[in-house]
Structure formats: C-alpha cells, structure tokens
Amino acid sequence: MSKEEFFNFLKEIGGLINIRRKMDGPLCNYGCECSDGWLELIAELIQELVDAGWTREIRQIKEKFGGLRFYADGLPHSGIEIVGKYERRSFTICEICGSTDQVRLCGTRWVKTLCDQCQPPCNVSI
Ligand SMILES: [Zn+2]
Q1: CA dihedral 76, 58, 42, 2 (to 10 degrees)
Q2: Is residue 124 part of a domain?
Q3: How many separate domains does the chain show?
Q4: Which range marks the domain in which residue 24 is found?
Q5: Distance from the CA of 21 to the center of ligand 1, in angstroms?
Q6: Which of 63, 75, 76, 99 can pair with 53 through a Cys bridge, CB separation 3.0 to 4.6 Å?
Q7: What are phi and psi of 28, to 5 degrees?
Q8: 99, 37 in Cβ contact below 8 A?
Q9: With bands split at pLDDT 50, 70 and 90, how would you rate the model's confidence at 120?
Q10: What does the alpha-carbon distance between residue 59 and residue 36 come to, in Å, rounded to a whole number?
Q11: Is residue 44 part of a domain?
Q12: Residue 56 in contact with residue 50, Cβ under 8 Å?
C-alpha cells in the first residue's frame, strides 16, 4: 500500500483525530512514524478498530524495538486485543517493503523488522 492509498483509506473512514500533536505534512498529522511496509497492516488495524466502534482518536503510530506501537484513545472494549494482534503481526512484515519472506529482527541497539532484501543478513546476533 502506498502513502497515497493510505491517505485515501483514511479519508474514506473520515480521517483520524489527533488533538495532541500539530505537525506539518499529512502523515505526521496522523502521528504515523512507520515506514511504508507497514501501511497496509496499519490500515487493516484501523479498519478493524473502526468496525468495532473506535472513535478514531489517535495518539501515535510508531515502531519500537522492531515492532509496531499503536497508541489510541476511545478504543472499543475489544480494542486492546485487536491492537495486540496487529502489533504481534508487525514482527512478520518488513517495515520497509512489506514483504513477509525471510523477515527477521535486525540490529543490536537499533532494532528493526526487515527482510533479507532490505537488510542483507549479517553476523550480528541479537
Ligand atoms: Zn523488505
């Protein structure tokens, strides 16, 4: 999913509400700080939350320790469970290209979930 498709998706669902942060640029308006490989995953997560009754109040969407972090307010009863499911899934998807082949955690102090294409294997173990 491209950034443009992601924005169109957000428009279709009525946009996300972010009252805490005011930044420039459309992606920052939604507090999303992930690379494009996860946009489809994030869109699926948002759709499932909206279907479950989420108010669309977003705090921040980012990567931490190689995994997706999705912070939101106004979550429905099942929201925590839904978010957890997608955060776990993010460890199987390359954050850069979205591939699910040969994906693993890369790096030592700076950890990312990447595939062999985006980050050739090295000898560093984590
Ligand atoms: Zn990749």
Answers
A1: 150
A2: no
A3: 1
A4: 3-115
A5: 30
A6: 76
A7: -65, -30
A8: yes
A9: confident
A10: 19
A11: yes
A12: yes
Give the residue, 114 or 110, on which the prediction is more confident.
114
- Specify the residue for token string 């992930």: 34
Compute the distance between CA of residue 6 and CA of residue 12 in angstroms, rounded to an integer. 10
State yes or no: pLDDT of 33 exceeds 60: yes
Contact between 110 and 92 (Cβ < 8 Å) = no
Q: What sign does the dihedral 44-49-55-79 (CA atoms) show?
A: negative
In this structure, what token pair is assigned to residue 89?
């899934």
Residue 109 Cα to ligand 1 midpoint, Å, equals 20
**C-alpha 64 to ligand 1 mean position (Å):** 17
Cα separation, 104 vs 93, in Å, equals 8
In-domain check, residue 121: no
The Å distance, Cα 97 to ligand 1 centre, comes to 4
Q: Is residue 92 part of a domain?
A: yes
**CA 37 – CA 98 distance, rounded (Å):** 4
pTM of structure: 0.87
Q: Report the separation in Å between the CA atom of 107 and the middle of ligand 1, taken as the mean of its atom positions.
A: 14
Dist. CA 66 → ligand 1 center (Å): 13
